[in-house]
Amino acid sequence: MSLELLLNKIVNSEVIIWAGAGFSLYAGMPAVDEIKREVQDSCSVQEWKQLETIKHFPDMVEEFIRLRHGSRKPIVEIMNRMIDKNPVNLYVHKQLAGISTIHTIITTNYDRLFELAYGNRLATVFTDAQLEEADEKPVQLYKIHGDIRTPESMLISSGDYADYEERHTRKIWQRLKSLAAQKSILFIGYSFADENNDLFITNVLKHLEKNDQPSYLVIPDLPELKLTHLQKKNIEPINLTGEAFVDHIYQHVNGSGKSVEV
């Protein structure tokens, strides 16, 4: 029933896509553990002993920056090398781009996969100054953690997150609150194996003051206890992988058997 209702909402342009890191992995973008290994390779044994015990990635990056005398350049170079590259696959993003009833995408990812898939139909927004021009495009992508090609926009360390309010994004969040009041949010690319994702989604919904309309989370094979936990937060789980879900809605909107050009 949740999937049927969600499909109807998508057809009626009543859904905002919120994409997490897991949505980019199939395209060859790095997981956090891979970035940590690159950081380790750039550290001395003693430095890594200091860093490896820090569980939360932004906190680890903050300490890495301190070890580099306050410079963000080393971590930015690592991120750029791993993320700003040609994808090994773009099929799922291209399928999403082929669903004409989706007009708003929010992501915490720094990569350029959406830009590559949508081309000039997409406006990328990560500062308030970009909002007005973005309205001229049929699809808006809000990169709330910044963009890989604008390093100063990227939220990487705990210090970056602490300074978030000063990063010229207040109007963006006002816009997102307005959109969230009218539409349902669909989270895709988040795994509840990471408890931080649970907290992150809870905080997002609280920040957007999202209480009335249900939100949705695409995630396969959740234990019963987790299902109950989500439903108490008015989050309906969709028992599919991200790739399978995008294919399903693409076929639903465009007709069975249609495919995108790779």
Helix tally? 13
**Which fold name corresponds to the CATH topology of the largest domain?**
Rossmann fold
Provide the β-strand percentage band: 5-15%
Number of strands: 7
Total count of domains: 2
CATH architecture descriptor of the largest domain: 3-Layer(aba) Sandwich
Helix content: 40-55%
- Helix-strand makeup class: alpha/beta
How confident is the prediction overall: mean pLDDT? 89
What is the helix/strand order?
Answer: HEHHHHHEHEHEHHEHEHEH
Strand order of the largest sheet: 3-4-2-1-5-6-7
The first-level CATH class of the largest domain is given as Alpha Beta
Rounded to an integer in angstroms, the radius of gyration calculated over CA atoms is: 19 Å
| Main β-sheet description | 7 strands, parallel
Give start-end ranges of low-pLDDT stretches: none
How would the global form be characterised?
globular
Distance between the termini: 32 Å
The CATH homologous superfamily of the largest domain is named TPP-binding domain
Short structural summary:
This protein is α/β, with parallel strands linked by helices. The protein contains 13 helices and 7 strands. It has helices at 2-11, 32-41, 45-51, 57-67, 73-83, 91-97, 113-118, 131-134, 158-162, 170-182, 195-207, 224-232, 242-254, and strands spanning 15-19, 104-107, 122-125, 139-143, 184-188, 215-218, 235-238.
